[in-house]
Design brief:
heterodimer, A: 273 residues, alpha+beta, 3-methyladenine DNA Glycosylase II, Chain A, domain 3, Alpha-Beta Plaits, two-stranded antiparallel sheet, two-stranded antiparallel ribbon, 8 strands, B: 447 residues, alpha/beta, Rossmann fold, Ubiquitin-like (UB roll), 4 domains, 6-stranded mixed β-sheet, 4-stranded antiparallel β-sheet, binds iron/sulfur cluster
Chain lengths: 273, 447
């Protein structure tokens, strides 16, 4: 019996000793072998959002800070999620002029074609992945420019900002979007584009097909009919490649009226949505 | 132990379904009234269209010229007039420019006595030039430009010339029927290739489920003065995949990322060998090929000799149409082929078959989650872990998937065939490879 107690005690004592010895070693190592962190990097880290989203092109915030600090990267505008505050901070640390006058940019899906509105050419049965679908004849939609709706953007979005709306169409929640542009990088059709956070209207179509073809492919696609541009010349609509593009810098009168007059309903007033 | 040779790892045994069209004469399909001839019928740079709408075209006239070393020219399969030049989708899902020719005028070769030309005096360089100018591309399905396959790297000698007649895809019988009818011509083609490559050995490889064709070939070899070793291989899919057939016949392994050429090996599909024969003996470009039209939904399945540019729709009509609505129309074989949605898709140099499969044959089933059963690993002839590669590629970890061997995948479909969760693994790998290519391009651009 005593033997057993002693043995147990030995166990305790030796483990305790080993623990404290190693702990001591660690304490010394922490003091002696300490790697001085670059002050600039530390300062930069204070301003970067710490999301490690990778949209700057680096593995995370710290590698980007290191690149900025060492001068191997001179572009201080790469952190989109950080927004104006982050940019200003970086500017301060690196003593660089920054321009933070522009509005915050968010992503949006420029397509409202879906079941019942957009035609399909074949029945797609396969991976729920937009890039996988797009290698098969560019996806099942007759329109080659639209959203395939399989949600690859949702999968990569670090802010969980993209989801199906009530109509089952892919839509970005501008309040959640941090502007990292990862969705744009993954989307095979290029249907996601950045717009200012305070955008009032969008032309929710990406089809550069001729009006006649777009009409055959989709009932809500922009057919490039020029009504928005001609009827409301100051509203900022311009037709390029059979597609109306709306500008956000000069917002003249008639922007919402154009939405009403658009024969296919491709122009959407955003506050209503 | 089977007495037949085979590759060591993986493979599956789908029912071969070749009795419907196998061992039957090849029928000439009727001429297309409109031939739709794509400029991109091969792997590599598309040919450049050199005709305009309104031009009058002769039979076998050059209509697309080769645009590089890994590219082949395109010839018209019929005489007539160019009525349209348009973009079409090809079965592999990509777009190509295509010339539409309306039939008219006179054939200069078809139906006339053919003049033979003597190839024996040609130099090696001239033979290669002829093969490349006649637009030859591998007719087994991968459509690699033939002349590229025949030029060995500096200082390399050709050990084996391997004729691939495995035809391991179910339903397809084009190669088999071709051998039954053209064994002597194929041997003549081999003589030409022998002169060109001087291989140590010529091997003719065929699967054990086609004994008649093997017999005909053996008899032809017997009669000829050409030394050809005939290897009967075990009927196992994918026996005809290039790297597998090399392993089965010679025991040699093509290292990852290398071509058979790099280890002194030239592998050609039987029909390509026949085309070499026609190119050299008759100076005939590749304007027609043999196509199996089959599947449970077709009334009268048949193997046809078809002018390139003939639409699937027309061939279906020649098979007396459908007996039931097909669940899928496939270009190529059921394992590696591509689903098509447009019957106006034309036959190209790589179209080995067109299948109209019924719902029962397709066995459409709902996709569920991977249960980590490992069956795909057992089935993979390349020794990969398809399940893991799939998970990585679906989670955008393409470079990691590459490290796991994504680029070694031959897209044979064995893994997807055995997967009890019905996961479209090959689609995932095709997508992954595509994405990897984009990543590599980006990296190159950044440098
Ligand atoms: S036409 Fe426009 S709205 Fe319709 S599917 Fe195409 S991109 Fe989307
Ligand atoms: S926006 Fe692009 S990535 Fe997102 S679901 Fe549509 S096609 Fe896919
Ligand atoms: S919606 Fe797009 S830009 Fe916005 S946070 Fe998500 S991935 Fe980034
Ligand atoms: S498709 Fe690729 S991963 Fe699947 S069994 Fe064939 S080689 Fe292996």
């Amino acid at each position: 019996m005593l033997d057993l107690i002693l043995r147990t005690l030995y166990g305790f004592i030796s483990v305790a000793f080993l623990g404290s010895a190693l702990g001591f070693g660690l304490a010394i190592a922490a003091k002696k072998l300490r790697v001085e962190k670059d002050k600039t990097v530390e300062a930069l880290m204070g301003h970067l959002p710490g999301l490690n989203c990778g949209s700057c092109g680096y593995a995370g915030c710290e590698p980007y800070a290191e690149a900025l600090s060492s001068g191997s990267d001179s572009d201080i505008t790469k952190c989109k999620p950080g927004g104006a505050a982050c940019l200003e901070g970086i500017g301060q640390v690196l003593e660089r002029e920054v321009d933070t006058s522009g509005p915050r940019m968010v992503a949006q899906v420029h397509c409202r074609g879906g079941e019942g509105t957009a035609e399909t050419r074949y029945r797609y049965k396969g991976l729920k992945d937009c890039n996988a679908a797009s290698i098969l004849f560019g996806g099942d939609k007759s329109c080659q420019y639209g959203c395939l709706g399989l949600g690859s953007c949702m999968q990569v979005c670090p802010a969980d900002a993209i989801d199906y709306d009530e109509q089952g169409l892919v839509w970005v929640d501008k309040n959640k979007c941090i502007g990292c542009e990862k969705c744009i990088a993954v989307c095979p059709t290029g249907v996601i584009k950045m717009i200012p956070e305070d955008a009032d209207v969008i032309v929710a179509c990406n089809s550069k097909d001729k009006g006649k073809d777009t009409k055959a492919n989709c009932s809500v696609g922009c057919i490039g009919c020029q009504i928005c541009a001609k009827k409301f010349p100051d509203a900022g609509y311009k037709i390029t490649d059979n597609l109306s593009i709306v500008g956000y810098n000069d917002r003249g009168p008639g922007r919402a009226d154009a939405a009403e007059k658009c024969p296919t309903g491709s122009i959407i007033v955003l506050d209503e949505k | 132990m089977s007495k037949f040779k085979t590759f060591p790892k993986g493979g599956v045994h789908p029912p071969d379904n070749i009795s419907g069209t196998g061992n039957r004469p090849i029928r000439n399909a009727s001429l297309p009234t409109h031939a739709v001839i794509p400029m991109s019928q091969h792997i590599g740079a598309p040919a450049e269209c050199i005709v305009n709408v309104g031009d009058t075209i002769e039979e076998e006239q050059l209509i697309g010229k080769s645009t590089g070393y890994v590219s082949v020219p395109v010839h018209s399969s019929i005489p007539g007039k160019v009525v349209e030049i348009k973009e079409i989708y090809l079965p592999h899902g990509k777009k190509s420019q295509a010339v539409v020719i309306e039939l008219g005028g006179e054939f200069k070769r078809m139906g006339k006595p053919q003049k033979q030309s003597d190839w024996t005096g040609l130099s090696e360089k001239e033979i290669i030039e002829r093969i490349s100018s006649m637009g030859l591309a591998g007719q087994g399905g991968a459509t690699f430009p033939t002349h590229v396959k025949l030029v060995l790297p500096e200082g390399k000698k050709c050990d084996y010339l391997l004729v691939n007649a495995a035809e391991c895809e179910p339903y397809l019988t084009s190669d088999q029927n071709m051998i039954l009818e053209k064994a002597e011509e194929i041997l003549e083609g081999l003589k030409i290739l022998k002169k060109l490559l001087s291989p140590r050995e010529i091997i003719f490889a065929i699967e054990s489920n086609k004994p008649e064709a093997a017999g005909v070939m053996a008899a032809a070899v017997e009669k000829s003065d050409l030394d050809v070793r005939i290897d009967i291989l075990k009927t196992k899919y994918p026996q005809g995949a290039e790297k597998n057939i090399i392993k089965s016949c010679t025991g040699k392994e093509v290292p990852s990322g290398k071509l058979p050429l790099d280890i002194g090996m030239v592998v050609l599909n039987v029909e390509t060998v026949y085309s070499v024969y026609e190119a050299l003996v008759f100076e005939k470009p590749l304007v027609e090929r043999v196509v199996t039209v089959s599947g449970g939904a077709v009334k009268a399945p048949e193997t046809f000799r078809v002018k390139i540019g003939t639409t699937y729709r027309q061939l279906l009509e020649e098979c007396e149409g459908l007996i039931e609505e097909p669940a899928k129309v496939i270009s190529g074989g059921p394992m590696m082929g591509f689903g098509v949605f447009d019957l106006d898709t034309p036959v190209t140099k790589g179209t080995s078959g067109i299948l109209f499969l019924t719902k029962k044959e397709v066995k459409a089933a709902k996709q569920t989650s991977c249960i980590s059963c490992g069956r795909c690993i057992q089935a993979c002839p390349m020794g990969l872990n398809p399940s893991d590669i799939n998970k990585h590629s679906l989670n955008f970890l393409f470079e990691e998937a590459q490290d796991m061997g994504l680029l070694d995948c031959v897209e044979c479909g064995s893994c997807a065939y055995v997967c009890p969760a019905h996961i479209p693994l090959v689609q995932s790998f095709r997508m992954g490879k595509n994405q990897l290519r984009a990543i590599m391009m980006q990296k190159k651009g950044a440098k």
